[in-house]
Amino acid sequence: MVPRLLKTETIYRGRTFSLRVDELEFHPGRSTRLDIVEHGGAVTMLPLDHENNIWFIRQYRHSVGDVLLELPAGALGEGEDPRAGAERELQEEIGMRPGRLEWLLDFWLAPGYSTELMHVYLATGLTPSKLAHDEDEVIEIEKIPAARAAAMAASGELRDSKSLVSVLVAAKRLGW
User: What's the distance, Cα to Cα, between the start and end of the chain in Å?
Assistant: First the structure.
């Protein structure tokens, strides 16, 4: 059964997302309030070079208070095509342009409270083409052999959800 929406109110509008509160009726006569993060979507790229290395980045994530190993990724601009966003983010984060972008999958990042849809691409045929980093990014690039990255994902050593999903899907598809 799909609940009935009784009321919705946007209580915050930020640079990357908005926050709304929805009041829903799941059962007759009883309502529940849900906090929803409205997000315009994002892209994650799995850059794979000719030596079968995956290009990761390390960056500080203030929300978890740690430096994480992640695949390059970023939020889409309003109305931005995911393929164009993937190409732009690769140039910003690892200074490379893909010769080929192959769609791997789309998935909801956290559907319990967010509208963020993540688009994942395999990027191959990498050539140098650098764009400036975003102001809030300090990034280190790290190349990891694909089979090692798959083992890191399977063992829990890789802890970023978008990177876990992307590496495991690519490993299954490409046989690492």
Answer: 41
Q: How far is CA 167 from CA 33, 82, 98, 156, 162, in A?
A: 36, 19, 18, 12, 9
144 vs 47: CA distance, rounded Å: 11
The pLDDT tens digits of the residues spanning 32-88 come to 999 999 999 999 999 999 999 999 999 999 999 999 999 999 999 999 999 999 999
SS3 state of residue 49: coil
Q: Specify whether 34 is located in the same domain as 54.
A: no
Q: 68 pairs with which residues across the strands? A: 59
pTM for the model: 0.91
Residue range of the domain that includes 142 = 41-104+117-174
Residues 88 and 159 in one domain: yes
- Partners of 65 in the beta sheet? none
Phi first, then psi, for residue 4 (nearest 5°) are -90, 130
Amino acid letter for position 59: Q
Q: How is residue 21 annotated by DSSP?
A: E
Is 94 among the domain residues? yes
Whether the CB-CB separation of 18 and 40 falls below 8 Å is answered with no
Angle at 14 between CA 109 and CA 113, to 5 degrees: 30
User: Residues 151, 157, 158, 161: is their CA dihedral positive or negative?
Assistant: positive
Same domain, 33 and 64: no
